[in-house]
Amino acid sequence: MDECAAYWDRVGRARARHHLERRVAEYKGREHVRLIGEWLGAGDRRVALKTDAYEEAYGPDTFVPWLLSRTDSVSVVDVSKAIASRAKLVVHGADYSCADVRSLPYRDCSFDLVVSNSTLDHLSPSDVPAALSEINRVMRARGVLVLTLDNAHNPLYRLGYSIEKRLGLQGHMQEKCYLDSEVRPLLLTAGFSVSDVRSIVHLPTPFNLLAKTLSSISPGLMDIPIRMGIRFFSKFGMGGRNLRTGWFLAFRCVKD
Hints:
Blueprint: H1 3-14, H2 22-40, E1 47-50, H3 54-58, H4 64-70, E2 73-78, H5 81-90, E3 95-98, E4 111-117, H6 128-138, E5 139-150, H7 155-167, H8 180-190, E6 192-200, H9 207-217, H10 223-234, E7 248-255
Parallel strand pairs: 1-2, 1-4, 2-3, 4-5
Antiparallel strand pairs: 5-7, 6-7
């Protein structure tokens, strides 16, 4: 078995629940729906691909049901058979496959829309160009790629990321936070043009840990304070235009 697949299978089997507090995860899901909805726009029905199944397997941040309502079909790939199998049991309607994003099991020009949400930042930076080229291969001309990566423009997130990576607190492999200036040349080389850049999920880095702690003390009583905190901090994102406050850097890319 491939070393990467074996690693994520171990993570998948060990994972009992999502690493995000429920309301934080729901907010993350809404942020993706808002962004993809805006960038997708109105038009013909589409054939979509999502490049990992983690949200579908473990969390309330899944947006595959929303994608299914907006497209003709949705395929989801994950390098881990354990994660893909669990996702298939939890979120129905999509076509799930165990595959590496660097070697996708699809014909050329198969998809109008690809959503790669915080997938490539788990790869070694040296593998990212190959993954982007493979995504480009399976997309149709003028297809849209929504790419999100851990955001190095956010100083608090980058600091927390470094600490968690060094101490192994996240529970899974983390590779790199990215700057806009690092990603654009990779996309250009892979055959994409970038039409928009935003950031999403505008919360201070410790917010999730605080929310999980409060929820464990009194789940019902802390619902309103956590939701109010999310609404308050999300305002600093200025609709995604403030790159320094989001957890993820998001690119709208079009296949040339």
